[in-house]
Amino acid sequence: MYERFVLSLYVLSGLSTVFIWLAWRKRTDPGGTPMVVFYLALAVGAVAYARDITATTLGTQLLYRQIATVAQGTVAIAWLYAALQYANFDRSLTRRVVGVLSLDPLLLTVGFLLPGVTFFRTPPTGTTGSLLHAQATQLTPLFLLHMGTILVTALAGTLVLIQLFLRSRHLYRTQAAAVLVAALTPWTIALSQQYFLQIPEDATIFAWGISGVAMTAGLYTFKTLDPVPAAQSTIVETMGDGTVVLDMDGRISDINPAAEALLNDGDAPVVGRHIGAVVDGWEALHEGESGHRDWEELSLTVDGDERFLEVETTSFTDRFDDEVGTLVVLRDITDRKRREQRLEQYKLIFDSVTEPVYVLDDDGRILRYNDPFADLVGCDGTALVGEPITVVLGPEPAATDGGFSDRMETTIRTDSGAEVPCELDLAPVALDDGATGRVGIIRDISRRKAIESELAEATERLETLVEASPLAIIAHDTEGVVDVWNPAAESLFGWSADEVRGSTLPIVPAERERELLDHHDRVQSGEPLTGWETELRCKDGQRVPAAVSAAPIRDGDGEVVGTVAIIADISERKARQRQLERQNERLEEFASLVSHDLRNPLQVASGHLALAKTADGDAAAHIEDAEAALDRMETLIEDTLSLAKQGRDIGSTERTPLATLAERAWANVTTEGGSLTLAEPPTVDCDPDRVVELLENLFSNAITHGRPAGGDPVTVTVGPLDGGFYVADDGSGIPDDEADLVFESGFTTEDAGTGLGLDIVQTIADAHGWTVDVTGSEHGGARFEFTGVESR
């Protein structure tokens, strides 16, 4: 008897191993993973139970009995876990229940490993068979607690499976039968063994195996056990329409994801709430016959967005044909409603808009157009229907990235052949057949185009005037960013238009920035500026005198948006002004000479002539003094005329070797034994005659004032400088306290001198734009340096 029972246990273990492989393949399905644990524990328990029966020592029996006990608890818990998953119980609840029950095998394992914890009493000597069976009347309270846990677990699983059977038997008969077998087998075998079968060992392990096979057959052979976990998971959960299950009180008991997305407006759960609290206007729906409501429309707001739904409700009954609830199907028709609304809007446009409007199909053919469009193209209201839009205008822009061009300009060809410039707005439109067409709105812009053409011509003329203007014209915004910079501005300041446009105005010197800002504020306030004279900066750092006139630029609303300035180069005017000032000074000097310096020699000459008339023997001496006075008068007159002449502009300039001019000048003066040295002087751009006069005065000054009484003849040297030239002598030089006075008109250290020679030198240098300075030469004499000279 024991041999056949043990053999059956090993066969059960082998079959369980095969079913482990089957369950592992379906481990991702509901109940799959618990069934893997179930069969693994069943296989281990069957082997341990067989070894328990066949062991010959008490220690071995005790070890395998402990393993079989832990496996027994694991089998029961895994069986319940699989049943809960099959029946689609709440996942969080399922996990909590299984977690609590799993403490039983865990505590058993810990208790077996700890010394002093007793689950079995020592059996009588000579006992054979299973340790558990032999001690059926010797179980400890701890072991009885374990058995109670298994009993509760088995009872709970049975109730779950019976409930599942009742729900699904009228829909899925084969699966329902498998569920019923799985639920009742453990109890049937246990009761049969207790009251009918006289089996010396516990056969409930085979009951668990049969129950597990039935559950596996129901799940894996027939794919599903119940419409709730299967149909809901595979059909309802994935269908596009929302489904809601209501109980008899109108409370939501189940809902699929599509419906939850439509109804869940916030964090509060939908399940358990009354449908009227979730869906506004629910009570207004009209119920049809036999508890069926036809499709009705309903609007609700979800996350602040209005949605439109079609609602169909159907009552459903249980197996006794008693009504137990309502199935609600929700279909989101928001897109359709919005398309219908857009169509209504387009129809309203056709009925009310006064501008030409047309509608095209997805092939670009005209479906409809309004009377203003017909008037524009010269056709009646139906002649163009079905024609491509290209019969009256060029190709429209194609859709790009799901959209259309907002606005474009095109030309409408009328029936008479005329071409009318128009502005076209395009937008996609949903057509009745679900295709996407286009609606176009046209505006006649003939008048605007004519005005734009006139403005373009006027702008072109103004731009031509600005470009051709000899005066610099600059325009900038209120922040000083340049927008207009004409060629005259380029020529005057040195910056090209590309360098300046888009940047702040660069021509204002730092020292005049405050002054310019004051004038800028006045212009921005609307006050024009006329003839303001200032100095502006050029690209090379030079300053140019300029006259600035400015006025504000206003936009269409009269707001000041910038400034336009006209700038004139007044360098020549300033030079002429300075020349006139110098000429006036010369005239004043001339008047002074005439009234003072010439009067003295005249008085001397008159006096000596009068004495000569009355003198007896000294008449000749008086006459000589009178002649000397007259000679001085002649010199004064010549120098004065020369000085006055230099007040005029210089003549034409030419590049002339300075050495040639120096030789000419040296030949025109009385050298008194002096010598001229030319130290490779440069070629200069000058008025040759005036420069000869300049050199003559310098040479005469060196010979007359540079040679001390009884001293050696003077040597004069003309040589180059960086940017000019110098004239130096080796005479007695000029005292430091007189260096700043030598160029003043009338200053002289000689009684016979006129004091005009060096004044003439400075006047000629100024006329050429040169700068002249006096210093000491390396030989102790005077050295006159001329800079700012164009030379080579």
Sum up the structure in keywords:
22 strands; phosphoprotein; alpha+beta; elongated; 24 helices; Sig_transdc_His_kin-like_C; 5-stranded antiparallel β-sheet; 792 residues
Write up what this structure looks like:
- 47% of the residues lie in helices and 20% in strands.
- With 792 residues, it is α+β, with helices and mostly antiparallel strands.
- The strands form five sheets. It has a five-stranded antiparallel β-sheet. The chain has a five-stranded antiparallel β-sheet with strand order 7-6-10-9-8, with helices on both faces. A five-stranded antiparallel β-sheet has the order 12-11-15-14-13, with helices on both faces.
- A hairpin with a 5-residue loop joins strand 4 (305-317) and strand 5 (323-332).
- It is elongated, with a radius of gyration of 61 Å.
- 29% of the residues are buried.
- Mean pLDDT is 75; it is low at 125-137, 222-232 and 399-404.
